């Protein structure tokens, strides 16, 4: 049996998992890890400075607010200074050239929505291929709740199509 996907790796992650996926892509570009051929990110948390305007989104019922992110950052970072280290905040990496095709799925009612948009803009400024989809009116982690949030099924279908498209490349 021939493995059509041998040596084809796509990283995917949501929130902090999107952070790790991006770091893996950067390390792959630097030849420190095997080649990554694509990245698919859902509402990635990629800037621990938490200084973007969307951090002020604070509506009742949201499962993630700036206070939630502060809690996790306090348990992840060793010092305040680490928030600007690219290994914690990969959005701040000086050189984002040469990254694989990227699909970003963002939620409009998410404190992290500006980070996904900023990453899209930075990728484009370095000449990378990027596809961005904003799901207005959705909150952080909506993809995990397809029973109560049918829009999640739309996003999952689009993510599946994105993966197929990446894997179909030579």
In short:
The protein is 32% helix and 16% strand. It has a 4-stranded parallel beta sheet, with helices on both faces.
Give the secondary structure arrangement, pairings included.
Blueprint: E1 10-14, H1 16-29, E2 38-42, H2 66-76, E3 102-109, H3 113-125, E4 130-139, H4 151-167
Parallel strand pairs: 1-2, 2-3, 3-4
Top keywords for this entry?
alpha/beta; globular
Q: Which structural class should the secondary elements be placed in?
A: alpha/beta
Average pLDDT number:
94
Poorly predicted segments: none
Largest sheet: 4 strands, parallel
What is the quaternary state of this protein?
Answer: single chain
Rounded to an integer, what's the Rg over CA atoms? 16 Å
Share of helix, binned: 25-40%
**SS strand fraction:** 15-25%
Please give the count of helices.
Answer: 4
Assign an overall shape: globular
How far apart the termini lie comes to: 19 Å
Strand order of the largest sheet: 1-2-3-4
What is the succession of H and E elements? EHEHEHEH
Total strands: the figure is 4
Structure description:
It is built from four helices and four strands; from the N terminus they run βαβαβαβα. With 170 residues, it is α/β, with parallel strands linked by helices. It has a four-stranded parallel β-sheet with strand order 1-2-3-4, sandwiched between helices. α3 (113-125) links the parallel β3 (102-109) and β4 (130-139). The two termini are 19 Å apart. The mean pLDDT is 94.
